[in-house]
Amino acid sequence: MDRRKFLQLSGAGLGFSMLPLSGVAVAEAKLTQSGIDIAVKKELADAALNTATKLGASYADVRIGRYLNQFVITREMKVQNVVNTESLGMGVRVIANGTWGFAATNDMTVDGISRAAAQAVATAKANSRYQEEPVQLAKQKGFGEVSWRTPIQKNAIAMPLAEKVDLLMEVNKAALDSGADFVNSMLFLVNEQKYFASTDGSYIDQDVHRLWAPFEVTAVDKKSGAFRSRRGLSQPVGRGFEYLDGRKEDKIQSQTVLYRDSYDMLEDARLAAEQAREKLSAKSVKPGKYDLVLDPSHLWLTIHESVGHPLELDRVLGYEANFAGTSFATIDKWRSGKFQYGSDKVNFVADKVQPGSLGAVGYDDEGVKTGSWELVKDGVLVNYQAIRDQVHMLGQKASHGCCYADSWSSVQFQRMPNVSLMPGKETLSVEDMIKDVEKGIYIIGDGSFSIDQQRYNFQFGGQLFYEIENGKITGMLEDVAYQSNTQEFWNACSQICDKRDYRLGGSFFDGKGQPQQVSAVSHGSATARFNGVNVINTKRKLG
Amino acid sequence: MAILSRSEAKQILDKVLKYSKAEAASAQLSGSETGNIRYARNSVSTSGIVNDIELVVEARFGKKSGIATINEFSDAALEKVMRRAEELAKLSPDNPESMPLLGAQKYLPVNAFAKSTAEITPDQRAKAAADSIAAAKKQKVVAAGFLEDTRTFAAVANTEGLFGYHASTSANFTVTMRTENGQGSGWAQSDVTDFATMDTGATSRIAAQKAVESQQARALEPGKYTVILEPSAVSGLLGFMMWSADARTADEGRSFMSKKGGGNRIGEKMFDKRVHLYSDPTDPNVPAQPWSDEDHMALSRIDWIKNGVVRNLPRSRYWAQKTKAEPVPRPSNLIMAGGDKSTEQLIKETRRGVLVTRTWYIRMVDPQSLLLTGLTRDGTFYIENGKIKYPIKNFRFNESPVIMLNNIEDMGRPQRVGMGGFSAMIPALKVRDFTFSSLSDAV
N or C: which end of chain A has fewer CB within 10 A? Predict the structure, then answer.
């Protein structure tokens, strides 16, 4: 089986029907077994580091990874699939002759890892013939033997399967009872057990947990042949199963119920079914300029695409030119110190530490302690996202700590940290924001998304659209998508609600690189207003 | 070790199935060796080789099933993996949609293995990158590219008498060339079974030329245009259509293939009469695995759309039984019949239009009409009186492939393109009234 299998959820009209599935299928019980003993990991790591150094590497790091996944997949009152996977192996990365080399193996012996180290050095030397500039690695102090764990209360992967299946069956029943014709619901659970060691003198043991509970309901009007769907508003999180407790204090009453740090899947499914049906008779939007009021459950994706990606330094420099693309946010714009990315209300902060976020870890995948840094300050571009072999290009000395590999067998590279829009400094509620809008649309939930390879022109849909007329919400709209240009859009940001409304959204499967790797990342914001954005009508008729 | 012969694979599969005490069992053995080299800014950035071999065993008791995997093949290991699958099956809930294992299948012989790809060396990969970088330097542009070569085998067997073996090789190369001033960008690709037929230098020269010629692009007003979509531009939209086509979703009323009032649109003429889309694992241009990944059903030539009429939709065995129809396995390749014309000829016969090298970041906007949005990228040109007049700025499109395949003016010669995991033969298409909804500043 290819290491990167694509799990096809056949028959489901889902936006997320193609999911990367790494590792091999294992028994559920395997997910609760403990991994390799830490002393053994250190012995293997040292063998790799010593071999690489002996063969001429000027730097080496090794990652010993055990990656556990559980996917529980259901539709209507059926469990379609339960997939448990485990992937175990080691990857060695070296610098020799000023060039990177990488090799990976699942032969978990001293001989196996030493062979991989030798192969990595040989690859580095072979490629150095075509290397024009030697790698410059930012200095990093060793941390000795340290560890970090996602602060979870309930280990979702270790919970009894029956409990997870029961939850999804209840969710599906609630949706069907509330008017849905179809419902698909899932649980994706991830546990990365990662051990990192490098010639800098770090031995870092980390236990990272993530969870996502998406669903989609569909309502069909057989007579007209129309159908409409509504996806769940849960967000993927760096939390344990406690995220699904749906605590009262985490609920926000809006046009639908919105959620902060925990999620009531059952309630959302009920509402989703009603809303999918309501969509079938909702008014089709009149195209034109509208003031948009964007909920964090929607805005995270716009932030991800139009701020997170363009500020990845490897894209800016052209390393991703052949796949993900480059960036409009070029070095000269940053150097000018005057590039107005957004209005003066707009502040973006990158971080790898926010509790509950997907990006939170203690150390990145090249042994850098994580933290946070400003990307856009008072609307002006001030920094990028960069790792150890990149920061020198910005004249900076320390890595930002956002290096990541999705598997032991993938080479680590710069990946997006959490990138979040800071809440407004002045007290402002969503109700007060809407009161001021004459002609607008309030959008909840993420939908269709597309952006060009330099991140100028984008188009976004959503899950729920509500028309605002003269400060009041007057009803549901359908067929809405907005198109804008990144710089115009963020400069049209006129108001941001205060920190009481700040919430995290995120992506479980952000793709980048060749071969492609996935990573998980969160984006926080409070509800924000954007003036005069172009809205198109997406309804088409087939013959 | 990664690539086993037919007899080596059969021996392991026979042995593991003999250990079965379940009502039925099946096993799949597969291995791959994948090499790659990636470069950017005219310099190699990463390269590597990944080997993998794995045995997947499924045990069945009624509608209960358990799956276990292993990557060692001693007698003890084989017995252990079967016992584990059996234990898992006994513990698992019934799957109401489970279908009995298939009996012996007649798999078509497919020749998809090329020695040159099987024996590719790290030096050859490095040279492939060097040839591309040399092409870039000659035109004073900057190359970023990726070459991935794969050798793979898969063998399947079960206790009902099914056995199959398939070995294949493939190499996929993509390259983006950008001018140093950032004003021009070009892209080209090559997807082959036999690495000896791949010329990364020649492919790179096409991309470099497009980069140079796409500088100083002018802005055209968004609107409806006649377009010539090169094969890679077409495949982006067609891929979405093929992935969305499914009998069950259509019958359930939630697909662009659903019929008003119920049922699906098989038998209806939904497209221009020249549209002929089919799959055939034995096609010499795109040889592919002769069984479906889902349940190992034998694949053979099948029409999806012929003369513009929907002929077939993929249909799982479960749904086939439920709807008293024939099961239709998902294919392993896709072929769209075209004409004999080169892209140059299509341009020559176009009075006014837009040439699109490639489509990018395509996403579903509305599954009801299969409305997709995405952008043009890496070489978009204005055509006037049979000639490329000047480069133009990229557009965002909002268009349904169903509408696109109704508005065909002409078709070019099919070319092989990589299409998200499998290979396809796709012609360039000349299409009228293609909807560009806004301009993009991206180069």
Answer: C
Count structural domains, chain B.
2
CATH number at residue A166: 3.30.2290.10
B281-300: burial string, b at 16+ Cβ within 10 Å, e else: bbbeebbbbbbbbebbbbbe
| Full residue range of the structural domain in which residue B358 is found | 217-443
A88: tokens are 């175990």
**d(C-alpha B213, C-alpha B291), whole Å:** 44
pLDDT digit string, tens, across residues B98-139 = 999 999 999 999 999 999 999 999 889 989 999 999 999 999
pTM of the model: 0.94
Q: Which of residues 102-121 of B touch A (CB under 8 A)?
A: none
Interface residue of A457, A487, A533, A541 to substitute, partner B, most B CBs within 10 Å: A457
Mutate to test the interface with A, among B56, B153, B237, B363 (most CBs of A within 10 A): B363
> β-strand A480-485 against A472-478: which pairing, if any?
unpaired
Nearest CB to A79; choose among B40, B93, B258: B93
Within this chain, do residues B192 and B257 fall inside the same structural domain, yes or no? Answer: no
- Give the nearest partner residue to B438 out of A119, A454, A483, using CB atoms: A483
Contact A299, A535 (CB under 8 A): no
Is residue A181 less than 8 Å (CB to CB) from chain B? yes
Residue A6 has pLDDT above 60, yes or no: no
**Closest residue by Cα to residue B231 from B417, B419, B374, B380:** B417
Question: A110-127 and B122-138 helices cross at what angle (nearest 10)?
Answer: 30
Alpha-carbon distance A21 to A71, whole Å? 9
Instruction: Scan residues 59-98 of B and list those with Cβ closer than 8 Å to A.
Output: 67-69, 71, 84, 87-88, 92-93, 95-97
Q: What number is the ipTM of this complex?
A: 0.92
> What is the distance between the alpha carbons of residues A299 and A307, in angstroms, rounded to a whole number?
11
Are residues A390 and A488 both part of a single domain?
yes
Provide DSSP, B397-423.
Answer: EEE-HHHHTTSEEEEB--EEEEETTEE
Whether the CB-CB separation of A207 and A67 falls below 8 Å is answered with: no
Judged by a CB distance cut-off of 8 A, whether residue B40 touches chain A is yes
Contact present, B208 and B141 (Cβ < 8 Å): yes
**Alpha carbon of residue B144 to chain centroid:** 22
End-to-end Cα separation, chain B, in angstroms? 45
For the record, the structure tokens of A374 come out as 């400003």
SS3 B235: helix
Q: What is the mean pLDDT of chain A?
A: 93
Residue A168 lies in a domain: yes
**Residues in contact with B117: Cβ distance below 8 Å, sequence separation at least 6, in sequence order:** B149, B150, B151, B169, B170, B171, B192, B193, B194, B195, B196
The amino acid at residue B131 is D
Q: What token pair was written down for A317?
A: 């420099």
The pLDDT confidence band at residue A132, using thresholds 50, 70 and 90, is: confident
User: Does the beta-carbon distance from B48 to A123 stay under 8 Å?
Assistant: yes
Spell out a b/e string for B341-351, using b for 16 or more CB atoms within 10 Å of the CB, else e.
bebebbbeebe
Token look-up 């939908």 returns A447
Q: Is residue B1 part of a domain?
A: no
* Complete DSSP assignment for A140-169: ----EEEEEE---SS-GGGS-HHHHHHHHH
Largest CA distance in chain B: 73
**DSSP letter string over B107-167?**
PPP--B--HHHHT--HHHHHHHHHHHHHHHHHTTEEEEEEEEEEEEEEEEEETTS-EEEEE
Of A389, A414, A413, the closest CA to residue A95 belongs to A389
In a domain, B299, yes or no: yes
Q: Is residue B425 situated within a structural domain?
A: yes
Q: What is the pLDDT of residues B43-58, one digit of tens each?
A: 888 877 777 788 999 9
